[in-house]
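Quick question, first post here. What does this chain look like in 3D?
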Amino acid sequence: MKIVWRLKNATVRDVYQALQEQRPVAYTTVMTMMKILEEKGFLKKTMVERTHLYKPAKPMEQVVGAMVRDFLDRVFDGAPDRLLLHLAKNNTLTGAQRRIVKKLIEEADE
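> Answer (accepted):
Ran it through. Tokens below.
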């Protein structure tokens, strides 16, 4: 999704080549993932000169929110506090991040 957002619209080959610069990935894997993202409504596909061109169907913030909610549902039974506890217990939050979380909690309580 990040690549399609950055390019505004992209073919499977465009995404594949961009990913190849970061790590090896199979073309068919990219094609499958883009199909899944289209089925979930995150990408729109149009035919341009015998090639499928994909573009984002929703704004980045909306898609990220949906993906985070899906992750929370699947991994933490929908409980965000369990995710935060996991991050805090495993020391994956920096001091600055902990202060931000604390501030957000305090603001939500007001």
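The radius of gyration is 18 Å.
The chain has two domains: 2-56, 60-109.
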